[in-house]
Amino acid sequence: MQRLNGFDDDNTMYIVINHIKTRYPLLKKHLPMKKLQNKTAIVTGAASGMGKAIAEIFAKEGANVIVADLKKNEIDDVVNNITKNGGKALGIVCNVSIESDIKNLIDACVSKFNALDILVNNAGIMDDFTPVDMVTNDLWNKVMSVNLNGPFYACRMAVPIMLKQQNGVIINIASIGGLYGSRAGLTYTASKHALIGLTKNIGFMYATKGIRCNAIAPGGVNTNIGKNIQANKFGQERCVSGGSNMPRMGEADEIAKTALFLACEDASFLNGSVITADGGWTAY
Ligand SMILES: NC(=O)c1ccc[n+]([C@@H]2O[C@H](COP(=O)([O-])OP(=O)(O)OC[C@H]3O[C@@H](n4cnc5c(N)ncnc54)[C@H](O)[C@@H]3O)[C@@H](O)[C@H]2O)c1
């Protein structure tokens, strides 16, 4: 369908188009079709950074979006922003590392929208670049529970719903730290490598059942993730040694556009894949 050049990033235009569609239903077929019309998506970690950008672009493209995060006020801001721009969103406070929170999240999604078409496992935390000899059990368990257990719980509960629907898309936000050994500490690196394994297994396992599962491996992106880290000096020095090859930092909306591609039918033949979105850093 035709896109209106120059208006892609102008929410006002989308509000106007929605208004025209409501007032003049016969004009509907001549207006741009949204990529996620009538789809329902859960985005975790959606109060900040990439999750927020993904929630916003999905809503702009017609999806009902569940904005899930730890932070109530920031969730409300994202939901209000989406609704103000003519989209549909529901905010849910959820700690992805707690299985019962994930159950509440998925139950709320199905009870409100009667479907779960797209699951984006985006919530994630860093590990202060800690090398193995300094990793405490607490650090290991904390990072693993958010970066890996969370996506596991969510996939385990989402897949039966998607199997019933005979369609579904899962997108896991991994990292180039899930492909290489030198971008973070031990635990983050292990968690993102495992998330990529989880992605490939789910992708292959349900490939004939209408479910696609892919991952995005971002390079450095300007978000809040590094704001409060207390970097391990040795670990950070080792990791930044390759930083001079990074062409530039990315922006959250660049990852969101990649997620939109994976979520919609344009990516119908992508399954079990990892899209590296790093501006060319790992091509060096
Ligand atoms: N920013 C980068 O450079 C970069 C690079 C590669 C991968 N990533 C990955 O991208 C994802 C998004 O990170 P971001 O950079 O947008 O960070 P961010 O800190 O801006 O956003 C992460 C969000 O996740 C939420 N969150 C954290 N723990 C949670 C939990 N237990 N339950 C629910 N929500 C929780 C936070 O409250 C926050 O709103 C993460 O998985 C991260 O590992 C980030």
Number of helices: 8
What's the main sheet like?
Answer: 7 strands, parallel
Q: Estimate what percentage of residues fall within beta strands.
A: 15-25%
Query: What is the succession of H and E elements?
Result: HEHEHEHEHEHEEHEHE
Which stretches are low in confidence, meaning pLDDT under 50 for 5 or more residues running?
1-10
- Fold-level CATH name: Rossmann fold
Strand order of the largest sheet: 3-2-1-4-5-6-9
Distance between the termini: 37 Å
CATH class: Alpha Beta
CATH architecture, by name, is: 3-Layer(aba) Sandwich
- C-alpha Rg, in Å? 19 Å
Give every kind of bound small molecule, once each. nicotinamide-adenine-dinucleotide
Shape: globular
Structural class by helix and strand composition: alpha/beta
Query: How many structural domains can be distinguished in the coordinates?
Result: 1
Strand runs, count: 9
Percent in helix = 40-55%
CATH superfamily: NAD(P)-binding Rossmann-like Domain
Mean pLDDT: 93
Q: Main traits of this protein?
A:
binds nicotinamide-adenine-dinucleotide; alpha/beta; single chain; disordered N terminus; 9 strands
Structure description:
This protein has 284 residues and is α/β, with parallel strands linked by helices. The protein has a single domain, classed as Rossmann fold (3-Layer(aba) Sandwich), CATH 3.40.50. 43% of the residues lie in helices and 15% in strands. It contains 8 helices and 9 strands. The strands form 2 sheets. The chain has a 7-stranded parallel sheet with strand order 3-2-1-4-5-6-9, with helices on both faces. Strands 7-8 form a two-stranded parallel ribbon. Strand 1 (40-44), helix 2 (49-60) and strand 2 form a beta-alpha-beta unit. The longest helix is centred in the middle third of the chain and has 29 residues, at 137-165. It is globular, with a radius of gyration of 19 Å. The two termini are 37 Å apart.
